[in-house]
Specification:
450 residues, alpha+beta, Beta-Lactamase, Helix Hairpins, Heat Shock Protein 90, 3 domains, five-stranded antiparallel sheet, 10 helices, 12 strands, rod-shaped
Length: 450
């Protein structure tokens, strides 16, 4: 069930509840402590009242007991049970008469007035004397009633002050959130200047704003990337679509000529194949770039099998140019696992080998090496072709990037092969690199162990 209260209200109510518990415990503790102090004071005063009688009985055991001063409430019982002194109120005296002499403290009352009674005994040569002294607790109770009122009012004021302070602190603390919300309402779309305000405090809210800004950066980058992809795709699709339309128009003119019609249909089929490959490449890239978690796990033996299949396919492509495709594989740990699907790994090697075969001259050579390295595996494809233009290396893995005429044999591709290679490698947590060697080019892909 959703709460209709704001965060500020919930913080204030929660703080007030905590404060109420703390204030209640504090008030109770203060009240109990003061009550104990007042009770101890009355007991101490009553004990003091008995001290003179105790001293007199010990020092002058044969003399009669002197009467107490005015307002002193005591009862002295002789060893034979007679009452030597009695100034206690009636009801208090009756409570004392029912008790044997001893050392104790108890309560009694007279017409609703509470008393604290202290009992003691004194041993003399004539026997054991019983002494009782009483002190009225009325003034103490009156003081406690006054304290109760003071504590109640003070506790209420403290609670209100705490709630108000919590409200103000929550309001002040949530000001950056309100500023972020107002700024977020004005965000309209991708743009480098669209950011949420980050407070100077460096607290959790500032960290949240920084995280959200990083998220906005990723969204903006993704939007820009998608816009560029759409623009590039539209540009790439325009040429084969125009060629396909022209071929179909020419096919109309060849209705009376079966050979010409077949020729135009075959050319149109080639354009459709190219369009299909382009669409498949874009879909695969989109899927890979949206996948931040690699697949797998795949053991090294499965990847080696896929690499051998890729080499076989590359050798078929290389027959026409008499290109030699060599393959070397290292010794892998059988327990090693990698976050890449076998078919994705095959696409990586297929793209690298087909690019290398297309780049080399007749009777050239291409070499594939799959070797274990510290923490993963490394795929390396070398060729002895003319190499890559220096300006192309920086954008080689971008979509629709193609080298210039120095590798004209590779012309006509979709420009998505290397982009797919990088996307697959990065999805598996690895890297893809391309560089020129002393002769030809070297493509390197590294994939870490899981």
């Amino acid at each position: 069930m959703r709460s209709a209260l704001s965060v500020r209200s919930r913080i204030t109510i929660g703080s007030a509840v905590v404060a109420l518990v703390v204030v209640a415990i504090s008030v109770f503790a203060i009240r109990v402590n003061v009550e104990s102090i007042l009770h101890s004071s009355n007991v101490s005063l009553a004990t003091t009242d008995l001290a003179s009688f105790e001293r007199d009985l010990i020092m002058n055991p044969g003399e009669s007991v002197d009467p107490p001063g005015a307002g002193v409430l005591v009862l002295v019982r002789a060893p034979d049970g007679s009452i030597a002194v009695d100034t206690l109120p009636h009801d208090v005296r009756r409570a004392v008469e029912r008790r044997a002499p001893g050392h104790e403290v108890f309560s009694a009352s007279e017409d609703g007035t509470p008393y604290v009674v202290v009992a003691q005994t004194v041993r003399t040569r004539s026997g054991t004397w019983g002494l009782w002294a009483a002190r009225s607790s009325a003034s103490s109770n009156l003081a406690l009633h006054g304290l109760d009122g003071t504590l109640l009012v003070g506790g209420a004021l403290v609670l209100l002050a705490f709630a108000a302070a919590s409200w103000l602190l929550a309001t002040f603390s949530l000001r950056p959130v309100s500023a972020m919300r107002r700024r977020a309402e004005t965000l309209s779309g991708a743009g480098d200047d669209e950011r949420l305000p980050v407070g100077p405090a460096g607290d959790e809210i500032a960290a949240l704003a920084s995280t959200l800004n990083a998220f906005l950066d990723r969204v903006n980058a993704s939007t820009v990337r998608e816009k560029r992809m759409v623009s590039d795709a539209a540009h790439e699709l325009r040429t084969p679509l125009a060629a396909l339309r022209t071929q179909l128009e020419l096919a109309h003119d060849g209705f009376g000529d079966a050979d010409a019609l077949a020729r135009e249909i075959l050319e149109a089929e080639t354009s459709v194949i190219r369009l299909t490959a382009l669409a498949d490449g874009l879909l695969e890239l989109s899927r890979l770039e949206g996948d931040t978690v690699g697949s797998g796990p795949t053991v090294a033996a499965e990847l080696i099998d896929e690499a051998m299949g890729s080499v076989d396919r590359a050798r078929m492509l290389a027959l026409a140019k008499k290109v030699d495709v060599a393959f070397d594989v290292g010794d892998f740990d059988e327990a090693a696992q990698f976050a890449v699907e076998p078919d994705a790994f095959a696409r990586v090697i297929d793209n690298l080998l087909s690019n290398a075969v297309a780049a080399v001259d007749v009777e050239g050579s291409v070499a594939l090496s799959v070797q274990p390295i510290a923490g993963g595996l490394q795929v390396e494809v070398r060729d002895d072709g003319p190499g890559l233009p220096p300006g192309f290396l920086a954008v080689a893995f971008d979509r629709f990037s193609r080298p210039d005429e120095s590798r004209s044999a590779a012309a006509g591709g979709s420009g998505l092969g290397l982009a797919l290679v990088r996307a697959i490698a990065e999805t598996a947590g690895g890297t893809a690199e391309l560089a020129n060697a002393e002769r030809g080019a070297i493509a390197t892909v590294r994939i870490p162990n899981m």
